[in-house]
Amino acid sequence: QEQLVESGGGLVQPGGSLRLSCRASGRIFSPYTMGWYRQAPGKQRELVASMTALGITDYVDSVKGRFTISRDKDKSTVDLQMNNLKPEDTAIYYCNAYNSYYTPPHNFWGQGTQVTVSS
Question: Is residue 22 helix, strand or coil?
Fold first, then answer.
């Protein structure tokens, strides 16, 4: 059964760092685009970072230079290293796996992990 499980959220002071990790199981991983989304209270869910199966990355402008996405094929994990965190980064972060090869496209979500940036 396909499943995504996140870990690594928590409370951190502004300027601090956190590393989120997502482990994929089932058929998910190698051919999928893996991404991290976030949703703050009262706001829509937004894409934070993604990496295709070929290693092409994309970041939302607000995290460029601060966040780095990486994936480990052997461990079926995708990580998000977050540095120089700001209060506006506070949100629930969700791991996502997407593959448009299928009809309908496969689109899996993790349960989410809370990230709070506050002094």
Answer: strand
Give how far Cα 103 sits from Cα of 30, 64, 99, Å.
18, 33, 10
- CA distance to 61, 82, 93, per residue, from 11 (Å): 23, 13, 13
C-alpha angle with apex 49: 44 to 52, nearest 5 degrees? 125
Please give the mean pLDDT across all residues of the chain. Answer: 94
The model's confidence at residue 2, banded by pLDDT at 50, 70 and 90, is confident
- Cβ pair 11, 116 in contact under 8 A: yes
Are 117 and 12 contacting, i.e. CB atoms less than 8 angstroms apart? yes
Q: Specify whether the CB–CB gap between 85 and 16 falls below 8 A.
A: yes
